Amino acid sequence: MIRKHQMSRHILFVDDEVPIRETLSLYFKAKGMKVTTAETGEEAIRLSTEIPFSLVILDVRLGSESGLDLLERFKEMHPSLPVIMFSSLGNDPEVLAEALAKGANACMSKTQSLEQLMKEVERTIQTAPAPAS
């Protein structure tokens, strides 16, 4: 059974790869969460000014853009918005350290299972303040 508060949770998923965006969007929607996707940093920033998200999952490399730079912009605009960095680089200690220093709540590898990602999403959302209505 999906808890009522879970239905109100809204994730912004930012990744430049269409198959990854579509797969994760379908997965989280099947788990009862609302999902909005963005392909670019500018699109993600625009959406974050229009919609109160509960969480952002942000790719470390967005084509020619740096997800770590985008993380800084998110944290400047929305300091309490939790962000999970999502990387195809595995668990690179330098990327992990930089992401955490810039305010990421967690880092996940794209090679980890969807179940592991879901556990991290749930943990991050539960420990973050509720979004303003």
Brief overview, please?
The protein has 133 residues and is of the alpha/beta class. The protein has a single domain (4-126), classed as 3-Layer(aba) Sandwich (Rossmann fold), CATH 3.40.50.2300.
What does this structure look like?
It is a single chain. The chain is an alpha/beta fold. The chain has a single domain (4-126), classed as Rossmann fold (3-Layer(aba) Sandwich). It has six helices and seven strands. The chain has helices spanning 4-7, 18-30, 41-50, 67-77, 93-101, 114-127; strands at 10-14, 34-38, 55-59, 61-62, 65-66, 83-87, 106-109. The chain is globular, with a radius of gyration of 13 Å. The protein starts with a helix and ends in a 6-residue tail after the last helix.
Low-confidence stretches: 1-7
CATH class designation: Alpha Beta
CATH architecture: 3-Layer(aba) Sandwich
| Helix and strand element order | HEHEHEEEHEHEH
Strand content: 15-25%
Structural class by helix and strand composition:
alpha/beta
* CATH fold annotation: Rossmann fold
Q: What is the β-strand count?
A: 7
Task: Compile the SSE list and pairings.
Layout: H1 4-7, E1 10-14, H2 18-30, E2 34-38, H3 41-50, E3 55-59, E4 61-62, E5 65-66, H4 67-77, E6 83-87, H5 93-101, E7 106-109, H6 114-127
Parallel strand pairs: 1-2, 1-3, 3-6, 6-7
Antiparallel strand pairs: 4-5
Please name the defining characteristics of this protein.
single chain, 133 residues, alpha/beta, Rossmann fold, 5-stranded parallel sheet, two-stranded antiparallel sheet, 6 helices, disordered N terminus
